[in-house]
Amino acid sequence: MSFGEYLKSLREGKNMTLNQLAMYANISAAQLSRIENGKRGVPKPTTIKKIADGLKVPYEDLMEKAGYLDEYNEQKQKDDIKPNLRLFSNRLKQGMHQKSITLEQAVEECGVKPEYIEKLMNNPDKLPSAGTLYKLAELLDVTPDYLGGFTDDPDGRSPHTPKPKDLVNFLKQEDVMFHGVPLNEEDKQKIENVLIGLFWESKQMNKRKKK
What we know:
Number of helices: 13
Helix content: 55-70%
Distance between the termini: 67 Å
Mean pLDDT: 84
Strand order of the largest sheet: 1-2
Low-confidence stretches: none
């Protein structure tokens, strides 16, 4: 049932004529008729408020039927899962202090400029890229979900934490080229094998450096 049809059934259920509701709502009968017939589409929230007052029904009920509350709740849900940037910067600073991690170490680990790490520590305007977030979290020995402010458990996980793209999945799912030559499945597997070896070798070297 459309909003106009619902409004008409609601009005008729209260034994009100079109002209009566128009008068009580302080809108024109022609405008109300167009709303009920679906020729005007969903009215503005201010108009819905007038109609709700005229019908003596809860404003929120009409807003929900019009679809506005769905949009509101969807946006509210998005707002609720936005990262707390102050929490992120505090956890980053505290974690680096507790682990005795220097600015230079963070810069080397993440491959970014010192000024960028300092901004993340003091006045970030957004979270770092997923790759940098994960590298910082690994450096601090916490989950990126905790560092990003999506959970209060240092070992916890959250579905809302940004995730880096998986290179292996990219190789498997995409048509890619190397130096202008398209890669077949055998080429992709060879590249994956080489990358696996280099990746874990690099991880072991980093561990030795940290000791």
